[in-house]
Amino acid sequence: MTIEVGIIAPTAPVEIQPDAGKPGRGRGTLPISLVTIAVIIAAWSLASVYGVVSPLFLPSPLIVLKAIYNVAVNGFVDSTLAQHTFASLLRIFAALAASIVIGIPAGLAIGTSRIGKGILDPIVEFLRPLPPLAYLPLIIIWIGIGEASKITVISLAMLPPIILSTAAGVKSAPADFVNAARSFGASRLQVLLYVILPSAIPSILTGTRIALGAGWSTLVAAELVAASRGLGFMIQSAAQFLVTDIVIAGIIVIAAIAFLLEILARLLERWFVPWAAHR
Amino acid sequence: MSVLSLQSVSLAFPVDRDISQTRLVLDGITLHLASDEFIAVIGRSGSGKTSLLNLAAGFLKPTSGRVSVDGVDIAGPGADRAVVFQDDALYPWLNARDNVAFPLKLRGIAKGERRLRADDLLAKVGLDNAGAKNIWELSGGMRQRVGIARALASDPRFLLLDEPLGALDALTRARLQQFLLKVWSDSKTGALLITHSIEEAMLLATRVVVLAPNPGRIVADIPASFGRQLLSGKSLQEIKDSPEYRRLHDGLTGLIHADAQEDAA
């Protein structure tokens, strides 16, 4: 008896490890990724130190860091880094608000109504594959080079993922959920508001996350063309004067913000729809 | 007293996408459920049991025949016929209490009152302290009890039970059968139970209806009194040992089995 217990005991804890049975999850890839980043930065440093590439084209990481500090404190082309970033974020969130207000009802219409689908499908399918920069000039002709045109272009880029994910979420609402509500006497509107819409929220949030990504890249491109403030504008101005360190600094800030937005979106998903993981 | 009636009801589904070809799922079903009755419908897979319930609920429209409550044809699903689903169909974004209160919300009852009545119903199904719990924190048996409480919240005249105990383990299932019996006798609603289990049908129902497949049709409609015996305090073992229980069990098994042989031939 005692011998058996002695044999079983050490193996038992292994089985209750939470990540057991999920290959690749138990041991994360984070250390490997961190090493990769370190190697890239080291190679970049060495290339700068030994003058493999002219500093005019590739300033060292240290100079880029100094450039970030400089722009943050002293600013570049009349605005500090915070002001550029704020200008960009304001546009993205204004566009996000607009595309949510338009996109979710549109997605509901596509997902629930034959007429809605008939009307909206061709519009969404026309818009979806277009690169936003292709219609940016037209938008500028129509509504000028102010904030409105940039927000419009970003919204147009964000709309298709939000509309399509809403429509997909609506269609994925379990039939039993809808039938249950109907058997308790729910009207069509009540079914839509209390059953179909909540069922679709995980999908809508995923669509919003994708839209944020699409919007962010469109934003930077839109600012390259026409703006007097913003991260894209900062990069474009720096490039014209061949201030490469600020160009690279801007790229790093843009990447960092995109990364943070992604994390924020995932946190929102976990916070808003904790039940999605338990379906 | 109310009566839910299916009169010479037939149901045909299109075969795949070809609309011109149809398969008869139910043929000439006539069944009357009074609001003091408990009808259990048994039959093998493919005999159209669930379709029968979906017709009664109004989720499906009959190809021919009438579905009516007290002589008035039903226009679709309605609060007088509340459904309990096999996969509970509880809303995961609502906690247990709000799920139970959902039918009350649909009727525009104020929040405070909804809460009181939902807690009342949860107590009735033995889940006094589970109101604030998330659905995914509840066991399968608890979820079905929430589902039953939710159906009762809509004050139905008929409870339509679509194999609600089918996915539960044997022990929980046996407990919930007694529970269901008590809920039914307390609530004065008619019950239509779809089940795979002959034993479950016999222990709960006042009438056991047997469906045969291809196409689904009623081959037997037999009164049973074992549920009432259970309610009056007779023990389960005593009932199961009685000759009349065994006779009916053999009879029903034979009916379903004979049908299976005919199918194989």
UniProtKB/TrEMBL annotation, chain A:
Write down the InterPro entries for this protein, in alphabetical order.
MetI-like, MetI-like_sf
Q: Where is the protein localized?
A: Cell membrane
- Indicate the segments forming the ABC transmembrane type-1 domain, all copies: 85-265
User: Where exactly are the transmembrane stretches of this chain?
Assistant: 32-53, 89-111, 123-145, 151-170, 191-212, 238-261
Hydrolase found in the keyword field: no
User: What is the predominant subcellular site recorded for this chain?
Assistant: membrane
The topology of this chain with respect to the membrane is: Multi-pass membrane protein
Q: Which Pfam families match?
A: BPD_transp_1
Q: Which protein family is named in the record?
A: Belongs to the binding-protein-dependent transport system permease family.
Give the protein's recorded name.
Taurine transport system permease protein
TrEMBL record, chain B:
| Keyword field | ATP-binding, Cell inner membrane, Cell membrane, Membrane, Nucleotide-binding, Translocase, Transport
Query: Which GO-annotated molecular functions does the record name?
Result: ATP binding
Report any Pfam family annotated for this entry.
ABC_tran
Q: Which family does it belong to?
A: Belongs to the ABC transporter superfamily.
Q: Which InterPro entries match?
A: AAA+_ATPase, ABC_transporter-like_ATP-bd, ABC_transporter-like_CS, ABC_transporter_ATP-bind, P-loop_NTPase
Kindly provide the name given to this protein in its UniProt entry.
Answer: Taurine transport system ATP-binding protein
In this protein, which residues make up the domain named ABC transporter?
A: 4-238
* Gene3D superfamilies xrefs: P-loop containing nucleotide triphosphate hydrolases
Highest taxon listed in the record's lineage: Bacteria
